[in-house]
Amino acid sequence: MKDETVAKDIDTYIAASPEEHHARLNEMRELILQTVPQLQETISWGMPTFKLRGKNLAHFATHKHHLGFYPGEEPIVVFKEQLTAYKTSKGAVQLPWNKSLPKELIRDMLLWQAKHI
Fold it and tell me: What pLDDT sits at residue 2?
């Protein structure tokens, strides 16, 4: 984000992010909402957060060189073979700005997480 203030909602978060990232952030948001439609949107830990039945399903955040996707620890382990093209860490996937979103993989991870939270 452009400054260190915490956004009050996801629209504000996206608006405060670098303009060149707006389309990708909106694409990620729509992908998440279309995959699991009954989600609640909020800001948690300073980033867009999507809750299912009161529990965090996933988050995303803008970074200088990548879009951070945070589906939780277990999906990273379950989908590790499909994630070999991406840098991952405990609960996080780094999606480079210069590559298209792996939509099918993101959908699969979200649906898996929705069944297990």
Answer: 43
